[in-house]
Structure formats: C-alpha cells, structure tokens
Amino acid sequence: MDNKILKALKQCPLFTDMSDMEIEMTLSAARYRIVEYDKKDVFALTGMPCQYADIVVSGTLICRMVGISGKQVEVSRLTEGDIVAPAFIFAQDNKMPVSVETDTKVSVLRMKPEVFMELMNNDPKLNLNFIRVLSDIDAFLTRKMKVLSLLTVREKVAYFLLEAAGKQGSLTVRIDQSRQEIADSFGIQKYSLLRVLSEMSANKAISIDGKTITILDRSKL
C-alpha cells in the first residue's frame, strides 16, 4: 500500500487502535480505487445520493448547507483521514443534505457500500469504530445546532475563539480561515462578525494581529 494512503488511513477514526499491518491486511482483499479532484471541483450536490464510502487521502473538502434564499452555512471541513458522509452510506434515504466542494486538490479512497460492509462484517474492531464515528457525528450535530440556533452572534464568536484555543492549547490562536469563511460557518453576515471582533478588541477581551487572535480576558468574551 502507498505510504500516503496508509498515513491517511492511520488518521481515520475507522482504523483507530489498528496497526499498519492490520490496516494493510484489512484492505488487501478489498476492491477500492483512488479518485482525484481538482481545486474548486464539485464533489457532491445537495440531493445527490451517497453512492460510495469515501475516505479523504489528501486535501480539504468543504461541506455547505444552502437555504432557499441562497444563504450558505459551512457545516464542516473534511481533511486527511475523514470519512465523507458516513451516516448516509447505508441510509434508506441517502440523499446528501449538503453540497461538498473541494478547497484544494483532493484524493479519496473510494469503495462501494457493499465492499465497505463486507470489511466491517469481517472485522469486529472496524465495526465498533464505525459505530463510534456515527455516535460522534450525532454529538457534533447537536453542538452545531445549539450554536446556530440558540447563541447570539457574540456568543458564537466567543464559542469559536474558545474552541480554537482549546484545540491549539494556547490563548493565542492562529486562524487560517478567512473572515468570510468563519461567518459562513455560523450562518452570520461578515460585517456582524467584524463588528463583534472590533467590540471585543475595544473591550480588551482580545487582541488581533492579522490572522492571530489572543484572548486577553475570557470573562469579557
């Protein structure tokens, strides 16, 4: 197996607690292929059926939900090791609820659902890991719904900054997303985001230096 593929699979929660050899042996008899996409390609459109079990080998996919008015909300970003729409692979209604676009060049490892099912039937560890993946998705969506529907704009921005600080292990965080992308992820207008960041900076809750934001006083967020 190609080292790049193996590296991505080791990061995939489906293969948690499995050695390199176990992963290679598990996939040795499986029928899969590597599919390549260019930057800004349409990976999937809302309403399209989920026909494959795809695991991202390299690159970034952006999943967006689009309302009737055309308003977009960024639901998630998928990177190396992530499974694309795992909850819809075996769903009776397997129509994609989001549109998926490539943010960079992307490679995915692709299997048919029946091949994926056969792998899980032959490996209890793989089966348990997939159940955990689905459980984690449910927890993620519950948090996302709370953020989008219950929090004010200021609370959403504070949530974003504190979550980033927790992930990076520092009160000084590097924000790689553009301001528009951050706004889209919370379903708010860009000017609303900029206004709140400006207010937080003026209140000495944070300091902003380009793409770096330092949380000065958590209580003021």
TrEMBL record:
Keywords tagged on the record: DNA-binding, Transcription, Transcription regulation
All copies of domain Cyclic nucleotide-binding, residue ranges: 14-120
Domain spans labelled HTH crp-type: 151-219
Pfam name, any one: HTH_Crp_2
Gene Ontology molecular function, alphabetical: DNA binding; DNA-binding transcription factor activity
GO cellular component terms given for this protein: cytosol
PANTHER family: CRP FAMILY TRANSCRIPTIONAL REGULATORY PROTEIN, CYCLIC AMP-BINDING REGULATORY PROTEIN
Protein name: Crp/Fnr family transcriptional regulator
Biological classification of the source: Bacteria, Pseudomonadati, Bacteroidota, Bacteroidia, Bacteroidales
